[in-house]
Here is the input.
Amino acid sequence: MSQMTNAAETSASPRFVHFAERIRAAAAAKPDLEVIKCAGEARTWREFLPRINQVANMLAARGLGRGTMIAILAKSSIEYMEVFLGALQAGVCTVPLSGMASSEQLEMMVKDSGSKLVFASASTRDLIEPFRGRIEAVPADGYVAIDFEGEGWTPYETLLKGASTEPLYVDIEPGDAFNLIYSSGTTGVPKGIVQSQQMRAGHILRFHSLGPLDNAVTLISTALYSNTTLVMLLPTLAMGGRVIIMPKFDVKGYLEIAEKERVTHTMLVPVQFQRLLAYPDFDKYDLSAFEVKFCTSAPLREGVKREILARWPGKMFENYGLTEGGVGTILACHDHPDKLASVGTAGMGVDLRIINEAGEELPQGEIGEVIGRNGAMMTGYHNRPDLTEAMIWRSPEGQIFYKSGDMGRIDEDGFLYLLDRKKDMIISGGFNIYASDIEVEIAKHPEVEDVAVIGVPSAEWGETPLALVVLKPESRLGEAELTAWANARLGKTQRISGVEFRDDLPRSTIGKVMKRELRAPYWAESGRAI
Here is the structure.
């Protein structure tokens, strides 16, 4: 594992309390709380903690502890959480894997992580079968079936049989690896992001400060392998709340659970907010128990934020940040209705700055790359010190900042406005064009449901903006008509070369539009690299 000295992480902060300690305290305080529920099944702490302890003791009996890793590629379930939390009790680092990755990518991730066990569910088995038995670090009985039986697979219950249900106490240090999350791979080979115990402890305190979680009822509807999910789920458990997990998000099911369970907290990605608000019966559901809603993973459009404030009870926060940490802002939408086009101000303990291509810090108001540092930063990219170093910007004082890859500016009030991913910026005729500016304008058309703007080859300009648009149902809008409407409202250098209608836009499981996938066919035809 690549290691990095992190000045921000060693700065003055509250006493470090590791996650396993917080879990034991929460269980002791509320043993009869129905702490977790998924697909109709529920567990109190009195039932849940002994299972977590069994996983921890099983891992210890196999010689797995601090510095070792296990991988999980499975559907969301209570058993998934038993494994994840049990590993933490044992000091083992968990590697949650995405079912969106290919079998080849998954094999690479398991090898790269050095995982000693691989847990799977029936829904993900076929992704693992092609490489099962080929990875030297995983023993013959190390492929574990959570909810199925199969040759070469060890049943989950068999693995736990005989393991003690008593707590396992392990000395855990702030710098120990908590989890290893691989990037989505939508921009190339996935990178392993090592998040430390200290980093996760910071997440717990940060989210608890925004909306106390002691008695929270948090509804989780994104995949358990996602950092988006973990930054809301883990603090809820650690601070004494309860969690309801949806194995798969659907609008009607989400609203029914929210009403029935009197949900108080949730973390959603922009596309989920959009689909919920567009549901014809949304306003018929009683959502009055909501205290706090969070949005992250991709920018939430200003119009959607206003609609949330008008129609959905409770506070609304937009969180912008990196899985790697360092960069982080918070927009309290309910407190700043005049700043909804921004992603807010620097979060707790965050030092946020803007730099140019030469790595020079820029003054307020100028556009450049967003960088930041705080007490919640990754240890480094696993086995890739070169990539870790490329991520770093060092201040004149020698402090370590992380580069976000996002272009933005900070206004006179300290609010950050994002423009685009650096790699998604369109350079047309020598002018820098930010797709997000064009998307915001096109999204204002009453018949537009969704839009993504990409750069496509142009013989005259090098590249030119093209809008890929999803129309609202029943729309009769034409491509030429929308092109003319948009260009009448855009600046001269921003004008789009055209519009193409799509049934939908490809998104990752956490709602990010996969622009690399959208651009690829156009650049492949031109014979030029993207």
In short: The CA atoms of residues 465 and 496 lie 5 Å apart. The longest helix spans residues 45-61. The mean pLDDT is 92.
